[in-house]
Amino acid sequence: MATNPIFREYIGGKPYPDDLNDFPDIINTKLDEFHFLLASAVEEYDSNGKGTGIFRQNWNERYFGAEHIKELKRKYRYENVKVKVMISIGGRGNAFDPAEKEVWPDRARDSLEKIIQHYQRLDAIIDGIDINYEVVKTNETDFAHCIGSVIDALKNKDKVINEVSIAPSKNTQSHYLKLYRAHQKDVRLVDYQFYDQSVPSAADFVALFRQLSDEYQENILLAGFSTDPDDSGKLSREVFIEAATDLINTGSLRGIFVWDANDSAAADDPFFFEIKAQDLLVGSDSK
C-alpha cells in the first residue's frame, strides 16, 4: 500500500448526470485523506477574451453547497480518513491571460476570498485551493507572480485557506514549475495530468513519473487519470493501473486523482476507476 495515501476527485464541473446531486459515497476509509475538488472557480473575461481576475463559482451550489459540505464532513468525522473540500481555480478550457497583470492579483484575491468566506459564514470549511489552468498564455514569470501573489494572500496573509495544490500538464509544465519553485513552501500537492498526453505503456508512465519526481518532491506528486470521454485515447485505464501498481509497490506513488466525478457517474460502470484506484492505494485490491 502507499504511505499516507491520498485520493482526490474533481466534481461539479458539468451539468450531468441528473442523479449526481450530492458528493458520491465512494470514500475508502483506509485512506489517509480523501479530497473533493469543486470545479471550478471560473474567471470572467472581457470583450477581448482577457482575464479580469474576477472569479465566480461554476459548480451547482444546490448540490455542492454549504449544507452538503457540512454533512459530508459530519459523516466522516469519526473515521480515520481526513475528508477535505477544495476549490479548483481556472477550469477546463479556460486560459490564464490577464488583461491587466498589475491589478489581476488583487482582484483575484478579493473575488476568491468572497467565495470562500461565503462558505465559512455558513460553517462550511473550504480547506484549500487547487490551481488548475489548463491553458496559459503569458510567460512563466508573469504566471508565477500573479498566481503566487494570490496564494500568498489567501494562505499566508489573510489565512482563509490551509493548503494549496497545483495541476500542471505537458503544455503548462514550465509555468507551473516556475510557480512551484517560487512558492515551494506553500504547495502541498502536485496533481500532474498524465491523461493530457500520450502515454502508451506502463514503462512510459513510470519514466514520466520519475522525471517529474526530479522536478517536484516525489511524496507530493499525484498521478491523474481522466474518465472524461474527451480524454480517451491518450492514456488507457489498463496502462494507468499497471503503472500505478508498480509505483505503489516500490513506495513511490502516494496518491491518485481523477477528472471527473460527473463523467464517472455517467459511465456504464459508475465510479469503477475511483474504487479501483483507492483499493490500489490502500493495498486491498483484489487483482
TrEMBL record:
Q: Identify the stretch annotated as signal peptide in this record.
A: none
GO BP terms, alphabetized: carbohydrate metabolic process
Instruction: State the InterPro entries in the record.
Output: Chitinase-like, GH, Glyco_hydro18_cat
Q: Which Pfam families match?
A: Glyco_hydro_18
Pinpoint the GH18 domain residues.
5-287
**PANTHER family named in the record:** 2, PUTATIVE, EXPRESSED-RELATED, CHITINASE 2-LIKE
Please state what the protein is called: Chitinase 2-like
What is the source species?
Answer: Abrus precatorius
Q: Source gene?
A: LOC113859670
